[in-house]
Amino acid sequence: MSTEDLGQKSIGRLLAQYSVPAIIASVATSLYNIVDSIFIGRGVGPMAIAGLAITFPLMNLVAAFCMMIAAGGATISSIFLGQKNYNRATDVVNNVLVLCLVHSAIIGGLTLLFLDPILYFFGATDETVVYAREFMEVILLGTPIAFVFIGLNNLMRATGYPKKAMISALISVVVNVILAPLFIFKLKWGIQGAALATVSGQFVAFIWVLAHFMSKKSSIHFRWKNRWLSRSIVKRIYAIGLSPFLMNVCACVVVIFINRALLDYGGDQGNLCVGAYGIINRTTMFFVMVVFGVTQGMQPILGYNMGAGHFQRVKSTLHTGIWIGVAITALGWMISEGLPDTISRMFTTDETLISLSREGFRIYFLVYPVVGCQIVIQNFFQSVGKPKLSIFLSLTRQLLFLIPFLILLPRIWGVDGVWASMAASDFLAFAVSLITLWWWMRHVMSKWEKIESKKQ
Hints:
It is a single chain. This protein has helices at 11-43, 46-82, 86-113, 115-121, 129-141, 143-158, 162-186, 190-214, 231-265, 270-308, 311-338, 340-347, 351-364, 371-383, 387-413, 415-455. By secondary structure, the chain is mainly alpha-helical. The protein has one domain (3-455). The chain crosses the membrane at residues 12-35, 47-80, 92-115, 135-155, 167-185, 191-215, 236-262, 274-295, 316-336, 361-377, 389-413, 419-440.
């Protein structure tokens, strides 16, 4: 499919062509975490589930530096393609590769060096730190592979190859699903086996993605004569990628507060409460990743049409994306509220952990349907090159609302207050995102449309 189709074909067909492969790829990515948790819970034990939950904030923090490059590079390349500037789009690909390698070496190396103090800071206890350490040591050693795979896979989708990007994600998860039970149950490698299966899957997909950008048959590929480090491109990558970076950093900070609140108010069951959050978080992230798949499919459509000045197509893409996002999280609400025990039993046979998860599901998912709308609007601003608004919406949910709730509500309702904090912050973040979008559409987009109509 030609990149020029982004400005000509119907929005519905484009969303199907770009979002469906992106959704499949995002689901495959989330299955990494779900498969790891299921095999670890059943093959190692409930305390290992708690140890894995402790790694969430650290993995979010490491991923933040990767997504900064991946999201920024994908958005810029789409905008350049909309402007028919193929040479600059090639510069972006070269720059993303270099930045991924540099970031992974620095972040992975420093984190590995100070791993134990970081894990204790994030809420590990003497009972859970051994599991968290064994898992993260392997993951961190594979950081360069993961960074290059994720960074280039986002560019593959943005430069007109959504199906190939989907296939690379499927390759990684299939390899993981095959190797994880072999490493955990057959070879008895425990939680390290789960991590090794994850890295192995990423390595195979890494080779696939690298081969695509080395082939001259690809419309945008590595070119030695193009710039490998351009100051102007790096600055734009960081500027646009700052939104997902801060979102992941905030998620890291928030999970620290959640883990500590669960340990403080969970009493003797504190570690198992953290494990319950691990199960709930894996579940909610599954549906969030599906919505992210929609926004990833929207990104090249929005970026191209924004660069080409087709503002009505931008608005149509946004409206369609919002309805799809809400439908996805509404489905998540129905399943999680209706079948909490069924979901929990996928991860563990421990009845105490299942009981704690049930109560968490009941409260956490109260307002979940509106989450899809908030995610789509936040990512919309990132895709049209307005990172400050995207950052603002990310910070309102993660910092302005959730952390104060986590400090206040558990004092009133204990562990239930932790779950209620997440539901309350989701609803307020949804309201703020709607107000922000209304303001931007009325005061900014309308002005651009008037300018464009005068040119015609």
